[in-house]
Amino acid sequence: DGPATVSPTGQPTGAEQARAAQSGAYLTTAQGTRLPDSDHSLKAGARGPVLIQDHHLREKITHFDHERIPERVVHARGAAAHGVFVGYGAAGEVSKAAFLAKDVQTPVFVRFSTVLGSRGSADTVRDTRGFATKFYTDEGTFDLVGNNIPVFFIQDAVKFPDVIHAGKPHPDREIPQAQSAHDTFWDFVSLHTEATHHTLWNMSDRGIPRSFRMMEGFGVHTFRLVNAADESVLVKFHWKPRLGVHSLVWEEAQMICGMDPDFHRRDLFDAIESGAFPQWELGIQVFPDTADQTFEGIDLLDPTKIVPEELSPVQPIGLMTLNANTKNYFAETEQVAFHPGHLVPGIDVTDDPLLAGRLFSYLDTQISRLGGPNFGQIPINRPHAPVNDMLRDGMHQTAVHTGVAPYRPNSLDGGCPFLAGADMSAFIETPVEVPAASKVREAPSSFSDHFTQPRLFWLSMTPLEREHIVAAYTFELSKCHEQAVKERTLKVLANIDPELCGQVATGLGLPAPAATVPLVAAGSSPALSQMGGTWPTD
Ligand code: HEM
């Protein structure tokens, strides 16, 4: 149940590894009984009927019949690798997390993914990419379950099923399998304008990365760090690739979808195999943990907003190197279970309503995806810290727990006492004051500006990047059948920028509508004025 059978890379060792390949001198059944033949079923004569007593045939076929497990409900297609994270020690003043201390080496497992496509879909589609990292720290597992785009489509988890239902293939014909070019997606994002910022990033070159190795990663939500003196700050996590940020162009992306649908997973595997280990620096933007949880007028609990790096630079706190490929895709990449609630002392969550829903969703979905509550015992999911819990039994239990008293307090198994002074680095929820309030179903008014930051993003683009964005919207919307959806989306674009809206409207052969909200001019918003209207994205 503990770390004993797991190597520093999280891979099975010893007995489990011996099981992993057909390395024995002879073939056996699953029970270890020697088999003379696994190629012929038992028959009454060479041309006669197959006998039901053929236990080997039954075992082999039955196991095969159950080889598949459900794919992830989102992020089904992924590729992953092992590596190591080394802390710089630069975060010591803001977090007591031991793995961030200088020169501490922590094994990691990273899974990159697309969001909407099925497990067998193509890699180079226009989509957000997942960037999920499992840190096997000495204080327990920390998962940073992020994306390659710093904002999200929705502000409240209650809308997650809606946005995914809209983004997944049409229910009637399951088309398209992996692209956003369809009516339901555009119907949703034009009706729910809080999706405008994320959609614009998707329509930019960020939606078609050249390689997983050349993507940024973002925690998206604001997290809370706590130091040894129990002082807290708010932070946003960033991964910066050492190779820089690069994208495909749309024509390349489309051609590669056909010619090599495994382009990104091949690229990652080949790079690591040849010793060209990809690296990312982990960085944080740090904000004071104020009562209003805003920074320069930006609501830090709103996952549709970024804090521009010009206002709060990303400070590097460690380096991650991916240096080992998976040995078995199913055992590792498919069975790994990330969860934003896997936290360690010194890292805590905030009240972002989207994050709250995620904290519920991942464990819940994994119980059905991985067949019961014991998937934490699968080698790739085992913590590298000692586990001393009172969870018992259940489907697929593989631990043989000893003792008689899996409850507390007890006087029979040692009682698992809290030793005075011994538990200094335990995870403790930050005691944040919750203001007295009545129950409501509403969003704070600070969540209602859906267009300033998309405009900021558009204004920061070079002419070529703008051309790509216009071409992407024109291509995607031209695939919509519903005229009303196209027209409504043009109204959304008008609220970002008249030039963007005008060019897409021309491409679609439709009139360009006027903006319905006042457009912020460079210099009129705190973020824009500090940047003179330009915002380099890399
Ligand atoms: C995967 C739910 C928002 C990043 C998943 C999975 C679920 C889920 C059910 C499949 C997990 C599994 O089967 O193991 C949700 C919900 C969200 C939400 C309910 C909002 C309410 C986000 C956001 C991000 C994100 C904002 C990025 C910051 C990921 C990633 C994966 C994932 C990277 C794939 C993990 C892997 O590689 O196994 N999400 N998600 N999700 N989600 Fe979310």
TrEMBL record:
The keyword Metal-binding applies. The keyword Iron applies. One of its GO terms (molecular function) is catalase activity. Its cofactor is heme. Residues 28-416 form the Catalase core domain. It is an enzyme of class 1 (oxidoreductase). It catalyses: 2 H2O2 = O2 + 2 H2O. Keywords: Heme, Hydrogen peroxide, Iron, Metal-binding, Oxidoreductase, Peroxidase. Its EC number is 1.11.1.6. Belongs to the catalase family. HPII subfamily. Decomposes hydrogen peroxide into water and oxygen; serves to protect cells from the toxic effects of hydrogen peroxide. This is Catalase. It comes from Streptomyces erythrochromogenes. The chain holds residues 45 to 582 of 749 of the full protein.
